[in-house]
Amino acid sequence: MRTRFAVLGPVRAWRGDTELALGPPKQRALLALLLTEAGHPVAVHEIVDALWGQDPPDSAVNVVQRHVGALRRLLEPELPAGGQSRWLLRGSGGYRLEVDPDGLDLLRFRALRQRAAQDGQPPTATGLLIEALALWRGPAASGIAPEVRSHPAFTALDDEHLAAVKEAAELALEAGPGLGARVLVTLRQAAAQHPLDEGLQARLILVLAATGHQAEALDVHRTVRTRLADELGVQPGPELQAALQRVLGHTHAVRGGARQTEPAEDVEGAAQLDAVATIRPAQLPVDLPAFTGRRSELAHVQELLPGSGTSTPTVVISAIGGMAGVGKTTLAVHWAHSVADRFPDGQLYVNLRGFHPSGSIMSAAEAIRSFLDVFGVPGQRIPAGLDAQAALYRSLLADRRVLIVLDNARDTEHVRPLLPGAPGCLVVVTSRNQLYGLVAGEGAHSLTLDVLTEAEAREFLSRRLGAERIANEPDAVAEIITLCGRLPLALAVVSARAVVNPAFPLASIAAELSESEDSLDAFAGEAPAADARSAFSWSYQLLSPAAARVFRLLALHPGPDCSLAAVASLAGQRVGQVRPVVAELARAHLISEPLPGRYGCHELLRAYAAELGRTHDTAQEPATARRRMLDHYLHTAHAADSLLMPSRDRVQLRPHTPGVTVPRLPDQAAAVDWLETNRSAVLAAIEQDARHGGGEHSWQLASVLELYLDRNGRWPEQLDAQTTAVEAAQRLGDIPGQAFAHLALGFVSGRLDRPDEADAHLSRALELFGEIGDLGGRSRTLRRLAFLANGRGRHEAALDHYAEASALCRAAGRRNDEAGIANEVGWTYILMGKYEDALTECGRAVSAHRETGDRNGEAAALDSLGYAHHHLHDHDRALECYEQALRVYREIRDRYLEADTLVHIGDTRRAAHQDTQAALVWREALGILDEIGHPDAEQVRHRLNDLAEPERPPRQ
User: Fold this and answer.
1) How many CB atoms lie within 10 A of CB 407?
2) CA gap 582, 352 in Å, rounded
3) How far, CA to CA in Å, does 662 sit from each of 507, 635, 641, 658?
């Protein structure tokens, strides 16, 4: 008896002509999940995650097993106990639902869509897509619990539906108005469900116009434009604008004949500019709900702008200064929020950390890079030098109205590269220093904040403590205001104490403040009222001894925030021991949690913690804590690097200091996530240890971070880190450290097209490795020299380097490295056009890597082997090799090289005139490269752009 299933809409199943009752909600949801992966196993942990999310019950696995049994009995009532089910099978750590190709609407939908993609005739392809879309009867798996249906397995099906609608609309424009009218029904429904999808709305406009509904097309554009402005605050993007122009220019008619194409470079450049142009950053921190006072200051800065609705004729720069804790950032953010609607192209914000006690100031180059990243500028388009980066940044801001907040600047030179060059923007700068240069040289308007007035300070406390509590103890309130010196940060700390303890009389809080004998010298004015230390000291004295110690140690951390594991390492304790301590500090508002699990500290409080450490701790305590922190980053980064490339030679570490927490990283995805999350902290630690520490951690951290930075195209960061590492190792007189650092610095110099510097650093590395007798190090250096020589077209020189490197590996008994060199020699032969020689070398490399068990090396050699077959036009053999390499990369979860091999597969498919298959694998590769942020993504987009303009014979 035939069994059928449906998941494109409500989840349903039939045996013959009888529809089955699918049971309770979780059982129905389980069936839906298995149908989305029909024919493929779904792991039990994936099922549990889909059905229960982040908080499954202890019995979740047992519940899944019971539902599986019930589904088997439902689908096969005649199945004997213990019998083998035909439909629902166990295997690969989960369950697999077998379905006939015509027994599931999802499989029929995908098959029809694939046939449409392979068909070269728009009318036929459009008809296939119409047939495919007719299978949908609502959102995928509708009827199951909303929290389950939000799982990516189901939302991905809705995305497939949306993509098919867009494909049908595109083809309908070429197929003729008859098919266009049939597509309109589904297209209108999808557009109503996705009112802010500009690509979908643009296609609706074009199909309406092509089928004679020009007035409705224009009405749709007006509606979408209004909705975008009202809900998102943006103007229509390039697709909508182009659709409107085609309607207005009467170019929407059914297209015929050969299509004219633009040069590929123009298409690619336009696409990149359009992508950047559509991004509207919104980086302002949250406005303080309890903001009070500063009315005269707000009026002053408001006068800097022209009337509402008028654009600024010049760049307006407001420099807000004053002592630490006076509320510069609070005022800047509050004012920025109040005028943000005047700057429709977005808001940029950066904390420049100009007075960070560890010295880890954010450079102008780092800030510009962060802004360019926000605007979506591809990594390979960002130049290496600060001047060039600043020019690109200013070009992006030209003809835009953007609000820019530069918080905690060190001095004028710190912010000058971040200033726009064209009118229309507002720049707000805060600093503890008076920025005379910015006023004199750039025409900035200066505003120096003083402490709050008595009335503002009283209003400040009233908003936080309640008007009744303030009115009941006016004398105590006056004393608190006096003792806090009307300094906003001090008032906030005292308010937090009073809010947490509502039963405490304000008089007792005033008395505790009055009894404090300490003072914060760095922020004291001529009068005691301007002193803030009494408030900080009072809050600090209320901490438990464990929390007080951790607060002092946090001043040693170089980055803007850190993880719980880093805090535990600083303290020399287990994560479980420091978690309640961190919670105590957060409750006292002495640290903040800007992101879940990440902890930071205001600079003034960090400075106070550093001062406390100098007076309360022995000289050994901070030194030992700093070493534990550096060991935490070094050993965790080393573990992450080992996961990314298990066979790679890397620096050997000494055992870490006792008390260090090294989190377990289960796989490559976790390794990449840790490196990305902690990248800023690790880079800051490299700088801090080089400037204030021993220097050994500096070069070792730079060494283990090298592969990650290189793979992700972060070459300017790599250059800075390795330059610092060389200097640190030289100061130490550490020959191995210098060798490793010169090796990395030479390679990244080559990446950044600095050939002379690359040659100098690699030659120095070769010399240093020779001094210490490190044959492996010399071999690695020669291989890098060969790689760069190939990049310059000097293939014979590359072969000489490889020959010398191979001899060193033989002498050292390093068979696996010999195999790697054989693969690289084979690649060189490919570049020289000696494909038969390449087959020999790469084949030898594959065999050797298999013998040594190096999966990564085996995959690399298989990829090279495929590349050689590709150039010999043996496409079947090439694809066979690529598929083997791809399987290995997926098994070891090397995402970048998986994408690289997918690109090669696409190249071979294209050469074999299999354009549809080529596009599929290129899109898959592009998704991976975009996900990891690699600059190679643009090369794949270039391939897809070329493929998007096929040559077609003229129609008769």
Assistant:
1) 20
2) 25
3) 47, 7, 14, 11
Q: What is the largest distance, in Å, between two alpha-carbon atoms of the chain?
A: 97
In 579-713, beta strands by DSSP E: 592-595, 598-600
Buried b (16+ CB within 10 A) or exposed e, 37-68: bbeebbebebbbebbbeeebeeebeebbeebb
Closest of 199, 182, 200 to residue 191, by C-alpha: 200
Q: Measured between alpha carbons, how far is 230 from 335 in angstroms, rounded to an integer? A: 22
Residue 724's H or E segment, with its range, is helix 715-732
Dihedral sign of CA atoms 451, 454, 456, 459 in order:
positive
Angle at 744 between CA 742 and CA 750, to 5 degrees: 100
Whether 484 and 458 have beta carbons less than 8 Å apart is answered as no
pLDDT digits (tens, 9 = 90+) for 325-351: 778 889 999 999 999 988 988 999 999
- In this predicted structure, what is the pLDDT of residue 262? 36
- What is the structure's pLDDT at 949? 60
Q: Are 198 and 275 in contact (CB under 8 A)?
A: no
pLDDT tens string 246-280 = 877 643 333 333 333 333 333 333 334 444 445 78
| d(C-alpha 164, C-alpha 943), whole Å | 22
Question: For residues 471-504, b (16+ Cβ closer than 10 Å) or e, as one string?
Answer: eebeebbebbbbbbbbbbbbbbbbbbbbeeeeee
Q: For residues 487 and 451, is the Cβ–Cβ distance under 8 A?
A: yes
Distance in angstroms (rounded) separating the CA atoms of residues 679 and 717: 10
- For residue 292, which amino acid is it? T
What is d(CA 90, CA 88) in angstroms, rounded to the nearest whole number?
7
If DSSP codes are grouped into helix, strand and coil, which group holds residue 43? Answer: strand
DSSP 379: G
- Which helix (H) or strand (E) covers residue 3, if one does? strand 3-6
Would strands 316-321 and 94-97 be described as parallel, antiparallel, or unpaired? unpaired
The model's pTM is 0.55
Residues 748 and 717: beta-carbon distance below 8 Å: no
Q: Is 23 left (phi over 0), alpha (psi -120 to 50) or beta?
A: left
How many residues can be counted in the chain? 956
- Mean predicted confidence (pLDDT) in 417-425: 87
927: which residues sit within 8 A by CB, 6+ positions away?
A: none
Angle between helices 937-947 and 895-911 (to 10 degrees): 20
| pLDDT tens for each residue of 654-687 | 999 999 999 999 987 788 889 989 999 999 999 9
Classify 120 as helix, strand or coil.
coil
The closest alpha carbon to 27, from 58, 89, 77, 73, belongs to 73
Residue 853 three-state SS: coil
Among candidates 54, 44, 120, which has minimal Cα distance to 950?
Answer: 120
Element of type H or E holding 510 = helix 506-515
Tokens for 285? 């921190």
- In terms of Cβ atoms closer than 10 Å to its own Cβ (0-12, 13-18, 19+), residue 789 is buried
β pairing state of 592-595 and 12-15: unpaired
Element holding 567 (H helix, E strand): helix 564-571
CA 916 → CA 120, 943, 950, distances in Å? Answer: 10, 13, 11
- Least Cα distance to 721 among 732, 713, 712, 709 occurs for 709
